[in-house]
Fold each of these.
Amino acid sequence: DRTVTQIAAGEVVERPASVVKELVENSLDAGADRLSVAVEAGGTEGIRVRDDGVGMDRAAVERAVEEHTTSKIDTIDDLEAGVGTLGFRGEALHTIGAVSRVTIRTKPRGGDTGTELRVEGGEVTAVGPAGCPEGTVVAVEDLFYNTPARRKFLKTTPTEFDHVNTVVTHYALANPDVAISLEHDDREVFATEGRGDLRSAVLSVYGREVAEAMRRVDGGNGEADGEGVSPDASPVESISGLVSHPETTRSTRDYLSTFVNGRYVTAGVLRKAVLDAYGGQLAPDRYPFAVLFVDLPADSVDVNVHPRKMEVRLNAEAAVTRAVTDAVREALLAEGL
Ligand code: ADP
Ligand code: MG
C-alpha cells in the first residue's frame, strides 16, 4: 500500500544523495559511456541524471516504475525492527516515485520512438511518445513533497550538495572509463573524460596538484608480474589504485576512498590500513588522498549490510588490512618516500 511504500522510501531514500546514487547506478547498469548529474539547491529542488545507455521502450519504462516485489514490511514496528532486511533491489524507481515527482524520458538504442513517463507520489500521471535522444534522462522534483516529516530532516543546501558530490565522486573514480559530470545550480563541479585511466579521473575530480602527487599501488596475490605483495593467508586477489605523497594531504579523512570488488565502501579498518602505511610521515591531523581498490573473493566479503549505508564486513580482516598496508607502503617506498 502507498503509505507503507512512502515510509519505506523515506527510510531508504534518506536525502537527495540517495536518489542520485540509485539513478547513477541505473545509468551505469544501462551501459552508459556518458552520464551527467545536475542538481539544484543541493538536490532539494531538483535532480537530473542523463545517460547514453541502452534506454527503454514504452513497456519497459512502464514496468520500471512498478513495484517489483511485495513489500516485506507490514507495520511501522517491522520497519523499526530492521529496515536492513528490506530488499531495495528492483525498487529504486518505484520508491523514489512514491516520494517525489519524477519525469523519465527514454529511447532505446537504435529505436525510433522515445517515451516520456511521469510519476507523482507513486501514481503514473502521464505516459506517451516523446522526441528524445537515445538513452535515458530521469528528473526528480519536489523530493519528499508528500512526506513533510522527511522533508524537514533535509539539511542545508551546502550539506546536501556535499553528500551528492561525495556520491558522484566515488562513482567517477570507480568508473574511469565512463565520462561522468556533475553540475550544481548550473555550474560545472567536475567532468571526467572517460579515458579509462584512474589518474585522469583523479585529475578531473581533485585537480592537477593532487593527481601529480599520486603514487601507484599495485599489490595482492593475483599479480601476473610477480612484483606485487603476496601476503600469506590473505584472501586478497588484488590491491590497486593511487595514494598521495605524504605531503599532499587534507585535514579530513574524506579523501580516503576505498572500494571493495568495485563498490565504494565505508570501512574504517581499510582507511586505517592505508594510514598505517604512512607511519609517522603525516603531519598531525592530516590525511592523504587515496583511491584504493581491493578485490576479494565474493565469499570473504559482506557488502550492503544496509542498503543505504555502504558498510562492509570482511572475513580475515587482519590479513586483508595487513595486505593493504603492505601494498600502500610498497608504493610509497618505491618512490623513496
Ligand atoms: P533495479 O536497478 O534494482 O533493477 P530500479 O528501480 O532502479 O531497480 O530500476 C528498475 C528497472 O528500470 C531496471 O532494472 C532497468 O531495467 C530499468 N532502468 C532504470 N534506469 C534505467 C536507465 N537509466 N537506463 C535503462 N534502463 C533503466
Ligand atoms: Mg537500480
Note: The chain is about 35% helix and 25% strand.
Amino acid sequence: MPQASPLEQEPRPGILPPPLRSFPAAQPLMSKVYDIGILPGDGIGDEVVSEAQKVLDAIQSIYGFQTRREHLPYGAEHYLKTGETMPDAAFDRIRQMHAVLFGAIGDPRIEVGKLEFAIIAGMRHRLDLYVNLRPVKLYHESLCPLKGKKPADIDILFLRENTEDAYAGVYGHTKKGTEHEIALQQMVYTRRGTERIVRHAFELALRRGPKPGRPKPMVTLIDKANAVRAQDLWTRTFAEVARDYPGVDTDHAYIDAACMWMVKNPEWFDVAVTTNLFGDIITDLGAMLIGGMGIAASGNIHPGKVSMFEGIHGSAPKYKGTDKASPLATILSMGLLLDHVGEAEAYQELEATVANLIQTGRIRSLRAGDHRCSEIDTMVRDELLERARQRR
Ligand code: IPM
Ligand code: MN
C-alpha cells in the first residue's frame, strides 16, 4: 500500500481548486512544516533554485510556517558520475513530500531527451501530475511585444493535460536508418485522462470568478479535432462536463486559430484547457506575451498530492554560473507551490511583490544579463520584508 500523501488539510483559497483529498487540520499553536524536495537539475537550475530558496526563507519568516528541504541531486552531472537518471528510490522519497521545486534539465553532453524523459516526464507520469498549470499574466505593458496590450488584456490560465497525448511514450521506428524507415508516435487520449483535466479547468474558472466586464468565467477548449479526429473525445467530454457548470461560459478554438487569437486578441481568453503537445507549444507563445522565459512559471499538479513546480524555461547552459538568468520564473513557480500546499496568502503576497517591483520599474527587464540573478532575488526579498514591516 502506498503511504498517504502528507498533503491533507481542509480546502483553502487560492488560484487552485480544492484538492481531491483534504489536508489534515493544522495543529493550533504549532507552526506548519512542509517537506519540500529541491531539485536544481542542470545549467542555470542551480542559481535560480538557490535564489528562490532565499525568497522562501523570507516568506516563511513572514507567514510563520517552516519547510524541511531535501536536496535531490539528479541531472546531467549525477548521470555522468553514476549512470543513474532518477532511481525508483527518489520517487519513493518524493511521494512522502508535499512538493518539489525544480530548476531545469538539459545538457549538451547527454543524448537528447534522455534526462527530460526520465526526470521531467518521469515525475509528471509516475506521480500522475495531470494538471500542468501555466498562468500567462502580464505585469507591465513594457514586457509585452504586442502593440497597445496592457496588463488588463493578458491574464490567461492555461491548463495543459500533462500525462497523455504524444507524451504517452508510445512510439517507435522500423527499418531505422534505411530509406524505407517508418517512425510513429501515438497521440493517446483516455476518457478518464481527458475528463479530469477538463473538470479541473471548470473548477478553477469558478474559483477565479468572471474577468472584469464579463458575466461569468469562461473556459476555452483548444484542440485540433477537425484534423486529429481522435480529439473528438475532447469535444464530447468538454460538452458533457460543461453541463455540470452552468455558471461557467464555454468557448472553443482550434489550436491554429488559438495561436492567431493569442496575438490578435489575447484579452478574449480566460481559462484555457488543451492537450499536452498543443499546451506545450502555446504556452511558449504565452510566455513571450508577458516578458519571456525569465518570468513564465508552472506547476505540475495532482490536486491534493505531492506536486512539482518549475519555470517553463530550459537549462540555458550558456548562462550557467554567470549570475545572468532571471530567477523570477522559479520564484513565481515557488509561489504556485506555496498555493498548492495551502499557503495561498503567501503566494498572493509574493505575486503582488513581484508585480510591484516590475510596475515601479525597479525590475526593468527580464532579459538574461540585464539584471543579475542575485540582484532580482535581493529586490524580491527586501520588498517582501519591507511590505511585511509596513503591515505591522
Ligand atoms: C516543457 C518542456 C518539456 C515538455 C520538455 C523539456 C520535455 O518543453 O516543460 O514545456 O515538452 O513538456
Ligand atoms: Mn515546453
Note: Confidence is low (pLDDT under 50) at residues 8-13, 17-28.
Amino acid sequence: MDYQHIIEDVYQEVKSKNPRGKVADYIPELANVDAEKFGIALVDLDGTVYGVGDYEQPFSIQSISKVHTLSMVAHVFQRKLWSRVNVEPSGNPFNSIAQLEFEKGIPRNPFINAGALVITDALTTKFDDPLEEVSRFIHEVSGKECVTINQDVMRSELRHSERNTALAYFLKAFQNFDNPVEEVIQTYVAHCSMEMCCVDLARSFSFLANDGYSIYANREIVTENVARRINALMLTCGFYDESGEFAFRVGLPGKSGVGGGVASVMPHKFSIAVWSPELNEKGNSVKAIMALELLTDKLKFSLF
Ligand code: GLN
C-alpha cells in the first residue's frame, strides 16, 4: 500500500478545500498556536513512518492522553474500573456536568472529562508518582526518549480549572473519587499538557492497532481483549457528541484533543495522527476529521 502517496494526496486536498474552525481559547495558552499548522503521520505495524506537512512538530495532545491513561489502568483493574465508569456515548460536550447528576456520579465513559478524572484518580491510587508513570508509559509505547509537558499550557489550564474541579468534587460527593481533588487535577492537567509530534503520537497508538502488543516496548501493553475494548470505546465515544459523525464519516476508532490533534487506528494495519489546531463547535479538529475521511475513502477500507 502506497501510504506516502495517499497521505500526500489527502494533505493537498484538505489544503485546497481549506475548511476553517476556531483555535481553542478557553485554555488561553492554546490560542497562541499557529492556526495554519497541519501535519499527518501514519505508522504501519513494522514501524515504517509516512509523514507530510508539520508532522514532526510537537503540539499539545490534551484529551488524546486519556487513551494512554485508560490503557494504563484498564488491564490492572478492569472489572473494578468498569463499575466506576460506564461505556456509553454521552451525546454531550466533553466537559458537561449535567449527566453526572442523573447517572449518580458514574461518568458515561472514560473520555469525557468526568470519566477521565476517575481514571486519573485510579492512577493516583495505584502509583506514588502517577505523572512520572504516565511519562514512562508514553516513553515505552512511543519509543521516544522523553515526553515534554508544556509548562505554559499547564499553568494556563490550571488557572481555569473551575469546571474540572467542580466535576471532581461532584464525583467525590457520589463516593466515586478517592484522592484529594487538587492533587488529581494537577496530574490530569499535566498529562493533558504533554506535547508530542504526529509521529510520536501515531507510534504511541500503535499497540492498539496491533492487538495490544507494542513493537517499541517489545511487550504486550494490554491484552488483545482489552485492546479491542479500548478501540470500541474510541469508536463510540472518542469525539464526544460528534462520535457518531466520526464513525459515519471515517469509520475508525479515534480520539481527539482540543490542541487540534486526532489519533486513530486501523486495527492490524496502521496507526495515524493528524494535527490542525482549528476546531469545530464540538471541540474536534476540522481539518483532521476531513483528512481521515478522505483517507478511508481513498483506501476504500475502514472498520466496516
Ligand atoms: N485539558 C482539557 C480539558 O480538560 C482537555 C479537553 C479536550 O481535549 N477535549 O478541558
Note: The first helix runs from residue 3 to 17.
